[in-house]
Amino acid sequence: MTLNLTRRLMLTGAMGTSIAGASACVSSVGSTTQAAAEGAFPPAPAIDPYLLGPKEGVALLSRNENPYGPAKSARDMIEYAASKGAYYTSFEAQVMLTEMIAEKNNVSPEQVVVTTGSGEVLSAIALIYGPKGPIVAPRLFWDTTALYAVNLRMANIERVPLAADMSVDLSTIEAKVTPETGLVQLCNPNNPTGMVSDAATLKAAVKRMASKTTVLVDEAYIELSDDPEGNSCVPLINAGHDVIVTRTFSKIYGMAGVRVGYSISSAETAEKIRATAMSWSPSLSIAAAIGCYNDEKFLAMSRSKIQEARDMVNTTIDTLGLTRLPSQTNFVYFKSGKEANAVQEAMMKKKISVRGQYMDYNEWTRVSMGTIADVERFCKALPEVLGA
Ligand SMILES: Cc1ncc(COP(=O)(O)O)c(C=O)c1O
Question: Quick one: average pLDDT of 63-77?
Fold first, then answer.
């Protein structure tokens, strides 16, 4: 796999190989006649335009990415950072991003930990709190990082079924929490349901639970919710509650491949997280995040495109008389009435990628908001795939 990738990159010159160098590789693997026909300096093969994004013609609506990013403000910084790529990420650049995040969230820089995607900080948190006791969480949530600690035998997840309306059942979760609980992990808005918990109910429950153990609220999609400030649990941190909030540049900022995320917590907790996080964020990623963090124009555009796509998907689902959950994110979870994996397969035949089955939710499909053109394809395909 790695070998193939390396070879392919060399052949396409994508690793910065000079044209002459790339041609040498091509000539050495071709036949003598082919080499002669191509001449000594044949043009370097073009870089596969689909190498790092969706394959040709595929509407990639399965991974909650945001195709409107990265913002120009981020791309300009990536270009600048690439020219300085010989040097390790500067401490000053990391401090600058940390200070920007701190300022926007009314916390001190000591309370912010920037990592390589929020996946990294979430994994670090699972490793810190998992060994203390169970991670209490909704049955259905973005469990990848908790499972990372489970797979290392450093944590167990105690899953609490969703309420009848598929919202997070906060009162049942709260009833499970004791001082022996390692961590409460919530995701607001939740993934894959896309639902936001009622802000007042959530905050009251989080405060009570945080008096017993640490509460983590993963706010990866919070900027896409109807009231990002009102829904966020960040204010609970400065009020002295044992709460950690994580955020990401992968969603509203459209930088899933660039890999920047962060946590906000007390300074003391941040110190523990910093000591556990494993990677050193690339300078290109830090630069990109600095470039776009306060790019309000881009953020408004991103939000409005996602909402436009979501309205189209909602209308299609409603017209078909299907049940869907009220999403405040860039994805919609709906009950198609057909096996989720069969829906996925049928969509894939039309080059549309949607999520397959989660746990035993066998008739539920999650579709992410892509470009308007890709979402249009999904809306047209859905009745065909469902035979409606
Ligand atoms: C709820 C939630 N949290 C965190 C992540 C991880 O995002 P990243 O590591 O790209 O910041 C995802 C990814 O889809 C997610 O859905």
Answer: 98
